[in-house]
């Protein structure tokens, strides 16, 4: 009885595969490429637990246990990178996250539609440039003869070497992050505002609600699901603080404050200390996935319909 | 009904001015670099704030255009962008189309594999070793193959394909069309909007990419444009005036840097106004749940 149903199942499966055989043929090349570059590298994670020798390969090298993790946590460099990452993450969450929400609200209150379009087009622009270009612009703009020093000079203040000064580094990182992402980030909030039923506002006006009250009682609550979802997603990506931006803005004198987990891993890669770099990378990935899973739980708890999966 | 109190009028003015200022601040660094790239050394060094160069000159551009590495880097970036986007569209749609079909085996399991890849990866070291072991170092394939099929793009495309009515596919099959013909003659022509969004994003991503080239491309003739900017403007490891004294009459190091930035940004600046709305559409497509 059991065997017969198993055989029947297998037969069904076989028939299904046969029916789908041409679809499989279309599917396989791309899917193989996907597996090769997304799943094959996972076995390289073993390097974190090995004495890796290139000649013996990853599998052939001897096990090292947790030695590399001990080395990692004993070294000042890794802890410094972790601390910097957390500081930048908190700053970006505190200042970078609310900025596009505020922009969307202000854009929504604008009566001049053409002006709103202009502001949107302009603020989206920096998003389309790589951080190499943006950092290049900033190096010129904030350079010793740059525009910022000319502006500062107008007020009789002294010139500064903005990007060489460790004290300014986090401020510059936060401000330029807003510069690059505020417009683009506002799109999704603005879409949420645009989908609000206009009769809600009309009814509120008829009831004598002021502009401020309409924002507070209609606009903001309508954006809330979007805000909460994106906040939790950002929480999930807490340790991803913008490698491209920070790596390109760092100078010889700001290396200490500009070292984050990703740049730490890169430096280990470049000095061929693969084991230590992999241990740090794995630490980063594991914390990352724990945060994402927790954040997704929280999203679901807030609203069953939302969330990544 | 639309009479406004003076407080609201004040707010409107304040809001207008604030957004105007925000727009100007966003744009000013770009305008500054454009202006500087057209300046003579005397104007560039003067401590004045100006938006329009008094004596515009193309001397800095001429100098950068004469750089031996620039054209090679430009060519390499164009090659990776064209090859990368073509491969991305072909491979992604070939993966997404079967997944959009209800009868396709193991859809659920495959979707889980896709989603998991967005949450967890080995990081840069295993990726580097993989590319190295595949013998792809210093090859353009190292730049176009890893990003050809991403979970994000597959899910967006699959969602779009699912919106195409099944009756059309059924009808084609009854008329004797095979799967390849259905994919190429029916699905792809009906999916131009999503293909365009993914192609545009892919093009911007490839045009702007530098990190993969920094890791995988070691030969100096394999560099991409972004790395040319990084080496000359940020690291100053490569001179913008190789093998000769700086001609201080014609340009300064800063005007040369500004010209380099403009030369690399120009293609994006030129197409941006026309394609901006497609990108906005893309954001809203991407925010749909997979």
Features:
heterodimer; A: 309 residues; MetI-like fold; 2 domains; two-stranded antiparallel sheet; 16 helices; flat; B: 290 residues; mainly alpha; 0% strand; globular
Overview of this structure, please?
The complex is a heterodimer of chains A (309) and B (290). Chain A is mainly α. Chain A has 2 domains: 2-59, no CATH class; 76-302, MetI-like (MetI-like fold). Chain A has 16 helices and 2 strands. In chain A, strands 1-2 form a two-stranded antiparallel sheet. In chain A, helix 5 (76-96) packs across helix 10 (166-194), helix 7 (113-124) packs across helix 10 (166-194) and helix 12 (211-236) packs antiparallel against helix 16. Chain B is an all-alpha fold. Chain B is built from 14 helices and no strands. Chain B starts with 5 loop residues before the first helix and ends with a helix. The chains are: A mainly alpha (309), B mainly alpha (290). Chains A and B meet through helix 1, helix 2, helix 6, helix 7 and helix 8 of A and helix 1, helix 4, helix 5, helix 6 and helix 10 of B.
């Amino acid at each position: 009885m059991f065997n017969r149903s198993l055989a029947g199942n297998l037969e069904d499966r076989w028939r299904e595969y046969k029916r789908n055989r041409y679809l499989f043929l279309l599917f396989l090349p791309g899917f193989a490429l996907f597996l090769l570059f997304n799943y094959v590298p996972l076995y390289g994670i073993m390097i974190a637990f090995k004495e890796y020798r290139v000649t013996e390969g990853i599998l052939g090298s001897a096990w090292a246990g947790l030695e590399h993790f001990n080395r990692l946590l004993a070294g000042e460099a890794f802890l410094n990178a972790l601390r910097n990452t957390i500081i930048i993450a908190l700053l970006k969450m505190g200042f970078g996250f609310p900025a596009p929400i505020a922009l969307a609200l202000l854009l929504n209150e604008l009566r001049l539609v053409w002006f709103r379009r202009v502001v949107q087009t302009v603020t989206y622009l920096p998003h389309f440039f790589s951080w190499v270009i943006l950092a290049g612009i900033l190096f010129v703009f904030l350079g010793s003869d740059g525009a910022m020093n000319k502006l500062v000079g107008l007020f009789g203040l002294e010139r500064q070497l903005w990007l060489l000064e460790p004290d300014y580094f986090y401020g510059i990182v936060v401000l330029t992050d807003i510069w690059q992402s505020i417009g683009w980030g506002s799109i999704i909030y603005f879409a949420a505002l645009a989908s609000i039923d206009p009769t809600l506002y009309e009814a509120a006006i008829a009831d004598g609600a002021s502009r401020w009250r309409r924002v507070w009682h209609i606009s903001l609550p309508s954006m809330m699901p979007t805000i909460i979802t994106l906040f939790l997603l950002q929480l999930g990506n807490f340790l991803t603080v913008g490698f491209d931006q920070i790596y390109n803005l760092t100078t010889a004198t700001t290396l200490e404050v500009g070292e984050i987990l990703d740049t730490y891993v890169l430096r280990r890669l470049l000095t061929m200390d693969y084991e230590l770099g992999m241990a740090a990378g794995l630490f980063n990935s594991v914390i990352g996935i724990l945060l994402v899973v927790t954040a997704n739980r929280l999203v679901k708890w807030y609203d069953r319909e939302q969330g990544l999966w | 009904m639309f009479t406004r109190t003076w407080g609201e009028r004040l707010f409107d003015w304040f809001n207008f001015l604030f957004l105007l200022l925000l727009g100007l601040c966003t744009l000013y660094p770009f305008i500054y670099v454009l202006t500087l790239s057209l300046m003579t050394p005397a104007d560039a060094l003067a401590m004045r704030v100006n938006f329009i160069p008094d004596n515009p000159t193309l001397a800095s551009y001429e100098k950068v255009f004469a750089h031996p590495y620039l054209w090679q880097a430009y060519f390499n970036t164009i090659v990776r962008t064209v090859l990368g986007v073509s491969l991305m569209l072909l491979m992604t749609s070939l993966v997404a189309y079967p997944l959009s079909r209800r009868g396709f085996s193991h859809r659920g399991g495959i979707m889980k594999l896709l989603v998991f890849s967005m949450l967890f990866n080995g990081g840069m070291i295993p990726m580097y070793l993989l590319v190295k072991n595949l013998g792809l170092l210093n090859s353009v394939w190292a730049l176009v193959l890893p990003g050809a099929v991403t979970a994000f793009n597959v899910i967006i495309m699959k969602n779009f394909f699912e919106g195409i009515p099944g009756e059309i596919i059924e009808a084609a099959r009854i008329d004797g069309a095979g799967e390849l013909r259905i994919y190429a003659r029916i699905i792809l022509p009906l999916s131009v909007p999503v293909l365009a969004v993914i192609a545009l994003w892919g093009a911007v991503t490839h045009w702007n990419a530098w990190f993969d080239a920094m890791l995988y491309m070691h030969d100096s003739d394999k560099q991409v444009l972004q790395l040319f900017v990084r080496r000359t403007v940020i690291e100053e490891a490569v001179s913008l005036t190789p093998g000769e004294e700086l001609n201080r009459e014609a340009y300064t190091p800063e005007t040369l840097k500004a010209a380099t930035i403009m030369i690399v940004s120009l293609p994006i600046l030129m197409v941006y106004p026309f394609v901006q709305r497609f990108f906005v559409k893309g954001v809203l497509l991407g925010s749909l749940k997979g």
